[in-house]
Design a protein that fits this description.
Elements: H1 2-20, H2 26-43, H3 52-86, H4 93-157, H5 162-170, H6 174-179
Helix pairs in contact: 2-4, 2-5, 3-4
């Protein structure tokens, strides 16, 4: 009976000591959660996200090349006609060259509005992609902040001790972080 009393007193003393252990402050809990986020990112690296601006630029580069090819083919057709007329020895070569140079310039002018429209579409798409990228980054930052606050609140609610938080702050790897008691 005497031993039971001694054990009971020892258990009560341990519970009292545990409840009196210094608890982590909200700032310390937040730092520990930030450490957890950093270690988690390091342990599970994500592939870099595709840059939407580069993707838009590449898409429009192909469209621009297609339009340039169409223009070059139209001018080559005019060149071919000119070469046929120049084969005639009796023809006025200067007049033919002048006439077909004017036709080439007119054809180039026909394509100018298409090039301008394509450039405007590209600028609009780049602007939209830039805004979407900025929004996604802001959303990710807001979510990370929300997760950080939720983690810190949970640590405070769970009454995590200062010793555990100190251990977590010193951890260099995620496994070391999780081993802290």
């Amino acid at each position: 009976m005497k031993k039971l009393g001694t054990v009971l007193v020892a258990v009560v003393a341990m519970v009292f000591a545990a409840s009196c252990a210094k608890k982590a402050t909200p700032e310390e809990a937040k730092k520990a959660c930030a450490q957890l986020q950093t270690l988690t990112k390091a342990a599970t690296p994500q592939p870099p996200a595709e840059d939407p601006i580069a993707k838009v630029t590449a898409d429009f580069q192909k469209k621009l090349q297609d339009l340039q090819t169409q223009q070059a083919q139209a001018i080559q057709a005019i060149d071919g006609e000119m070469q046929e007329k120049l084969k005639d020895e009796k023809a006025d070569k200067e007049a033919i060259a002048k006439e077909y140079n004017e036709k080439k310039n007119a054809k180039a002018q026909e394509f100018a509005p298409q090039f301008a429209a394509l450039n405007q579409q590209k600028n609009d798409a780049v602007k939209a992609a830039t805004e979407a990228k900025a929004k996604a980054e802001a959303d990710a930052k807001a979510q990370a902040e929300k997760d950080l606050n939720a983690c810190a609140d949970k640590m405070i609610k769970d009454r995590v001790t200062k010793a555990k938080v100190d251990c977590q702050l010193k951890a260099a790897k995620l496994d070391d972080f999780n081993k802290c008691k």
